[in-house]
């Protein structure tokens, strides 16, 4: 027979779920994501309480990083974490409780080129415009990919599928001709700009502000920020 003891400490919307015996403890916080959603691990089941929902998620799934709980129907849905490909919780699914850690973003993985390491997720479904892609990345506590070195640029090039246009976190929306990285707001350095950005095309320069990889080009093109494209999100490297 297996005994599982659990203690619940509730403070506002955050509490610690500890399972002794299994030697697990996890802090869940109620969140309401808008531009991403929880990856569902199975269909919902009925759990008598939110605490039992948390406990069974942790016991049944080593990759439990959150769950949804409907406090009226008592439906409980386990989750492996946040993804830009997933819809936010429906009313039927209830409230989302999330445990934030390095492992709570299942689409991200660490990729390397020489001594450059990045924690990155690539999305090509659905294709999103620049603002929506930025919002999707922010929803996962990340930002669009910043290719601010040759190593990172070629790494991006090798990670993406050639059939899509793929945008990066580089735009000149604020000041025409001054391309800045999305994470820092720093302007791209001129050496790198010459190496990775294709400029001087006969285009409407005022309206085209966002950098993207084109299937048949080896440098970033600049196009309308309203274009729906594939994109990458980047987080600090963690383990
Ligand atoms: C239980 O977890 C704690 C902290 O995570 C760790 O220090 C301890 O060694 C673990 N005990 C066992 C028996 O695994
Ligand atoms: C029950 O669920 C509703 C709807 O999500 C939420 O507004 C309310 O705060 C919940 N009540 C408790 C006690 O968690
Ligand atoms: C621009 O960036 C490249 C690559 O990161 C670096 O080697 C170079 O020194 C930088 N140049 C300037 C002027 O900052
Ligand atoms: C790594 O970066 C270098 C540029 O510094 C580039 O030539 C090479 O193709 C890159 N390799 C991969 C696998 O991205
Ligand atoms: C590259 O793509 C552009 C736009 O889709 C097209 O006009 C051009 O012919 C293509 N060039 C090559 C070499 O395939
Ligand atoms: C992207 O689409 C949204 C609607 O989904 C719109 O509000 C936004 O202005 C668009 N962004 C750009 C840069 O066109």
TrEMBL record:
InterPro entries: C-type_lectin-like (IPR001304), C-type_lectin-like/link_sf (IPR016186), CTDL_fold (IPR016187), Pan_app (IPR003609). Keywords: Signal. Residues 36-102 form the Apple domain. Residues 1-21 form the signal peptide. SUPFAM superfamilies: C-type lectin-like. Residues 117-234 form the C-type lectin domain. This is C-type lectin domain-containing protein. The lineage of its organism: Eukaryota, Metazoa, Spiralia, Lophotrochozoa, Mollusca.
């Amino acid at each position: 027979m297996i005994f599982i003891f659990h203690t619940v400490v509730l403070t506002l919307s955050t509490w610690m779920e500890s399972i002794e015996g299994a030697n697990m403890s996890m802090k869940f916080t109620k969140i309401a994501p808008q531009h991403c959603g929880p990856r569902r691990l199975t269909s919902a089941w009925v759990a008598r309480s939110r605490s039992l929902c948390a406990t069974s998620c942790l016991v049944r799934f080593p990759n439990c990083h959150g769950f949804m709980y409907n406090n009226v129907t008592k439906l409980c849905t386990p989750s492996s974490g946040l993804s830009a490909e997933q819809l936010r919780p429906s009313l039927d699914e209830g409230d989302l409780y999330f445990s934030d850690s390095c492992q709570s973003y299942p689409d991200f993985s660490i990729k390397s080129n020489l001594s450059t390491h990045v924690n990155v997720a690539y999305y090509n479904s659905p294709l999103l415009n620049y603002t929506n892609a930025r919002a999707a990345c922010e929803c996962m506590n990340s930002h669009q990919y910043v290719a601010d070195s040759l190593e990172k640029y070629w790494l991006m090039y090798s990670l993406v599928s050639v059939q899509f246009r793929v945008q990066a976190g580089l735009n000149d929306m604020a000041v025409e001709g001054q391309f800045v990285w999305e994470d820092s707001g720093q302007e791209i350095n001129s050496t790198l700009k010459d190496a990775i950005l294709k400029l001087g095309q006969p285009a409407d320069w005022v309206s085209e502000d966002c950098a993207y990889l084109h299937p048949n080009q080896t440098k970033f093109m600049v196009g309308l920020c309203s274009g729906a494209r594939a994109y990458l999100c980047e987080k600090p490297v963690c383990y």
